[in-house]
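User: Hello! My lab partner asked me to get a predicted holo structure for this protein. The small molecule is pyridoxal-5'-phosphate, SMILES included with the sequence. Please write out the structure tokens.
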Amino acid sequence: MYRMGQEEINAVARVIESGQLFKVNSGTLQESYNFEKELKDKVGVDHTILMTSGHAGLTAALIGMGIGPGDEVIVPAYTYIATAMAVVAAGAVPVIAEIDETLMLDPKDVEKKITKKTKAVIPVHMQGNPCDMDAFVALGKKYGIAVLEDACQAVGGQYKGKYLGTLGDAGAFSFNYFKVISAGEGGALLTNNKSIFEKALIYHDSSAVAYFGNQMEDFSTETFCGHEFRTNEITAAILREQLKKLDGIINDLREKKNMLRDALAPHFKFIPSNDYDGCCATSLTLQFDSAEEAEKIAKNSKACTVPINTGKHVYTAWDCILNKRGAAHPLFNPFNFEANKGYEYDPACCEKSLELLKKAGHISINPDWTKEQIDAIVKRLVDAKNA
Ligand SMILES: Cc1ncc(COP(=O)(O)O)c(C=O)c1O
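Assistant: Hello! Below are the structure tokens for the protein in complex with pyridoxal-5'-phosphate.
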């Protein structure tokens, strides 16, 4: 969350005064529907669904794609655990693939890991950095597998002029506290595919979607039992204000990232990017020659974080996935399903990724930094390097 203030306070007050807090209502505000429409118009897709979280958006997208037991879905070794958990929530098996020097999912390793069971791949735009979407869309076509973009950390970022989350068959955004725009919690699914949209809509609000309003009017999908990931008018009202601020936040992040990069360029190397100008610019990532150098500079500068140390963002810390604890009840655990039986994880499956994550340093960018604050960070980093 970067910028939240009086506009969001007024928006919340507006909803409370209206007394209409439920998504489907007869009031004039229609915050949820307006947010879904404004988001659709902003990023250029046919369908969006506001949900309670990014995890809900990812899971609903997989359900919408028809993915379930017996299917494998390829995820990167470097992503928040929620990406892999969404695959398990859909009843399928997450297969872990290497990242490349950009720290994004490596399309070459994905191609090696495609089997008869592979039904989808999830490129994750970590820290708002675009994945090589041309390669993933091509892989999707070549092997007939779906492409689901995890754009939870990448709201407002672009790849070759198109918004992240809109280039694959579906995409998911997160609006939790740590994201580019936020309502504390929240998420969205984006797709141009009507069939994915229909199933995802039913799945995310299965006890109510057929009951409230005329949401299933032209649907060819019948109702089924899913979950409740429906959100509310307060969340939507906050997000409508946040969406208005998105361009300003991204522009300022990019400006501050470029200032920092220019100042650091004589002293440091940076990771390569699939589209530097399109990235959200929430971070600038240094590339070090060794893990020792990365640890030394992170410790002494307190200005960057080595990604190997970021807990559940690295697959080796996904204990419930690696140990196949996919549910509380053993019979409900997808790893125990007959169709999924036999899949085993090797904790050493993505050693190249671990090496890359040890030799990098993320510097978080703040869109409201002053020139003096940027100079101070540069000094800390350069001093730490020379210490
Ligand atoms: C890459 C990635 N995917 C998925 C998620 C899940 O989002 P949420 O917390 O909104 O469920 C996150 C959240 O941190 C994330 O960073």
